[in-house]
Amino acid sequence: MAAKDKYHEHVKEALIKDGWEITHDPYYLDLGKVKYEIDLGAEKLIGATKENQKILVEVKSFLQESIVNEHHKVVGQYINYRIHLRKSDMERIAFLAITTKAYKRLQSLPPLLESFEECNIKLIIVDIEKRTIQSWIK
Questions:
Q1: How far apart are CA 93 and CA 109, in angstroms?
Q2: With pLDDT > 70 as the criterion, what percentage of the chain qualifies?
Q3: Weakest mean pLDDT among 16-20, 21-25, 31-35, 70-74
Q4: b/e sequence 119-131, b meaning 16+ C-beta within 10 Å
Q5: 44, β-bridge pairs
C-alpha cells in the first residue's frame, strides 16, 4: 500500500463537505501486470437526473523542493490513470486535488499550469485550513 499524501484526509473531508460519498480509499485499478492505487473514489447523486457522478481523486501536496520534478511525475501519473480508466472504468472521471498554496505556487510558473491544460488534467483546488473545495478546474 502506497503512503498517503500529507493532505489526503483534508481533501477527503472537503469532498464529504461538498456532498460527495467516499466509496474507495484507495481505489484499486488492476490491469493484470500493472496495478494502480488512486487515492480516492467518490460518488455524488445528481438530483434532477437521479444519476451518480463518479470521480477518482489523486491528492498531491507539491511540497517537494523541486516543483518541476513533482509536476513531471504528477502529469505522467495522471495521464496513465486516465488511459487505463478508459479501458476498465469509463464511468469515472479523474481529478488531481491540490492545495490553494500549491496552486498559487504553480501560477507563478505558467508553463506548468499550461501543461495541465494541454494534457486535460482536471483540478480540485482545496483550502486545507477550512477543509473545503475552493474550485473545480475542468
A1: 26
A2: 94
A3: 31-35
A4: eebbbbbbebeeb
A5: 53
Please provide the size of the chain in residues.
138
Residue with cell 474550485: 135
d(CA 19, CA 46): 10
Which has the closest alpha carbon to 91: 126, 19, 42? 42
Distance CA 119, CA 135 (A): 19
pTM of the predicted structure, to 2 decimals: 0.91
Parallel, antiparallel, or unpaired for β 123-127 and 92-99?
A: parallel
Q: How far is Cα 78 from Cα 65, in angstroms, rounded to an integer?
A: 21
Phi/psi region, residue 92 (left: phi>0; alpha: psi -120 to 50; beta: rest), is beta
pLDDT tens string 46-68: 765 556 889 999 999 998 888 99
- Residues 133, 118, 16, CA angle at the centre, nearest 5°? 15
Which CATH class, in words, describes the domain spanning 1-53+70-98+120-138? alpha beta
The rounded distance, in Å, linking the Cα atoms of 37 and 114 is 26
